[in-house]
Write a structure and sequence with these properties.
Length: 322
């Protein structure tokens, strides 16, 4: 297949893809756009946002702003009033959040309760814990992960987007981002489902804290830079942006006891595709992916607009692009 044929093949078989950027040996070897998108336009990368927040957490840890990922969550919220009878929350650590093994009350994400509140972090904390205690069970959450943004703010004194701009985006040459605020539930929904290009924004709560579970908008070329940073063990143009130890820990596979995730394993907010080859990815709904393959020294970034029936594009990347 030549580039023109590949363009048509993707348009026909993967119609919500907006951009692709592929790097090999640190050099971009393929890029293309669809659906009226230009190279620097952004899409909402959905849950791939989580993986960016994992890097921010590592940077804060490297700088001593976070003491340890085994710190108790409540250490960062000394004024939070624990609900009567609740005991489990006292033992929840940052590691539990990063590995999706934090315990919560109820099933599923309490979107309405959190997103209609004045303080998304405290409302998410209200759901942390429960009578079962810490079981170590894998429980994938998105909105309740907002606790991580609260911890970053308490630890660094900086809003999520400001910390990302200074310590991750600027060093990588990624355009400065700003917060995006939705005035109501309809605007929130439109932010998620609209198909038109977005700017360099990060969805934020009323306090200006970026949502860590979703909400970041990026171009595929900038997503590829994130992947290359990880592939190069935290180094960018000779400078250590995040420690090699953090990249190693972040991408260490842990079993996921669930039939719903393609039998993939999990690191710290990164999916481990092939543990034996250390191939891993940031994956967001609608097929937004940052795929890192150390064996082939290759990064693939795919940016897509909202299409809820598309969960990931690992097979497409491995069968067609590599």
């Amino acid at each position: 297949m030549n580039k023109k044929e590949l363009h048509e093949f993707i348009a026909q078989t993967q119609p919500n893809i907006c951009q692709i950027s592929m790097l090999k040996h640190g050099v971009e070897v393929y890029s293309d756009e669809w659906n009226g998108y230009k190279r620097n336009d952004c899409t909402h990368i959905m849950s791939a946002t989580k993986s960016i927040v994992a890097l921010l957490t590592g940077i804060a840890l490297d700088k001593g702003m976070i003491g340890s990922i085994d710190d108790k969550v409540l250490d960062y919220f000394p004024t939070y009033k624990v609900k009567r009878g609740e005991k489990t929350i006292y033992d929840v650590t940052i590691r539990h959040l990063l590995t999706m093994r934090a315990p919560y009350k109820g099933k599923g994400d309490p979107w309405s309760a959190v997103c209609s509140s004045e303080n998304w972090t405290e409302t998410s904390l209200d759901y942390l814990g429960g009578k079962k205690g810490i079981t170590g069970e894998f429980d994938y959450r998105t909105v309740c992960l907002h606790i991580l943004s609260g911890i970053l703010y308490k630890a660094t004194g900086m809003k999520t987007v400001d910390f990302a701009n200074q310590f991750l985006f600027a060093p990588l040459g990624i355009s400065e981002h700003e917060n995006f605020y939705a005035m109501n539930a309809e605007e929130h929904k439109q932010f998620t489902i609209e198909k038109t290009p977005k700017g360099n924004v990060w969805f934020a709560d009323p306090q200006g804290l970026g949502t860590p579970g979703y909400g970041l908008c990026m171009s595929a070329s900038d997503m590829a830079k994130i992947g290359l940073l990880c592939l190069n063990k935290g180094v960018w143009e000779g400078k250590q942006i995040v420690s090699e130890n953090w990249i190693k820990d972040m991408t260490t596979p842990r079993l996921v006891e669930s039939k719903y995730f393609r039998n993939m394993q999990y690191g710290y907010l990164w999916w481990i595709i092939h543990p034996e080859k250390n191939i891993y990815a940031a994956i967001g709904n609608s097929g937004n992916v940052i795929y890192v393959n150390p064996e082939k020294d290759t990064v693939v970034a795919v940016a897509s607009y909202f299409k809820p029936t598309v969960f990931d594009r690992v097979d497409f990347i491995e069968d067609n692009l590599l």
